[in-house]
TrEMBL record:
Protein name: P-type ATPase N-terminal domain-containing protein
Matches recorded under Pfam families: PhoLip_ATPase_N (PF16209)
Keyword Ribosomal protein: no
Organism: Stentor coeruleus
GO MF term set: ATPase-coupled intramembrane lipid transporter activity
Keywords assigned: Membrane, Transmembrane, Transmembrane helix
Amino acid sequence: MKAKLSLSSVIKSEKAKNYRLVNIQYGIPARTSIYKSNRVYSKQYAFLYLVPKTLFHEFQNISYFWFAFVVVLDFLSNDEAESWKMYPIVSFIILMVIIMISNFFRALWRHKANKMHNNLEAHVWEKTSFKNCKSESLVVGNVILVMDKEIVPADIILLSCRGKDTDMYANDEIFSNREDLNQDEIEFNFPQVKIRSDNTIRQGNLPNQSNKSQYAYLNMKKVLGNRELVVKKNIKNTEFIKETDPEIINGALKRMESIKVVAPSKSFSSFKGKIKFKGNPKACIVENDNFIIGGSKVALQP
């Protein structure tokens, strides 16, 4: 007997292909995850190949080729004054040494920043409670708890926030290793946004909140992502869990089974997915409204 394939089942299967299933990870898995680790390694120059990589990067500039060309011409000239021939090469060597020393300290500083981020204490949900672990041990699918004024250890979606007003600001040591977006280059052309004197965005009267004015602040100096994500960013209490009672939140976390997200794209602004639950509600939509970038801080307003 031949099985019949209906149009609805075909559409459903096509939609399923557009989603990627991410299982909820309770704690740190013993075996290696199929995803990349959360370990940060952002050094441009490693100490072992500092000299060759510096020369490679610097000589991509045409001015250095011209400098080297002048040095070669001086050595090939018939001038008997050998001491004059050494001036260009000595100047060139001094310049290269200064650049290498600068790259060395830059690599050392980034190494310390990476080590600090990788050793951050993270609180991971393990079915009944949150356990402490290092930031570098986190995997995709972990549910983590971020305390007040703690550095966010990874790119996360905020599920619940205890408090009315939320302040988010970037940590310069982390974001210096990421793409820089200058605030002056960003155009703000939508309502409910005001630029404060301390270079932050103020968003008032956000939707789906109480009648009281609530504000969210996002430091715009250094943020990972494209301008569309930065401009449309909202830090607000999510629709997912409105309760602040730990017992109610824990009950919701225990019923989470998996997350389905749309296939990855080049822009964070297109993030979309849904969380599957045991019981009701069956699923909950998650988008990038509460997307928080790793390395930032989330603090409750007094």
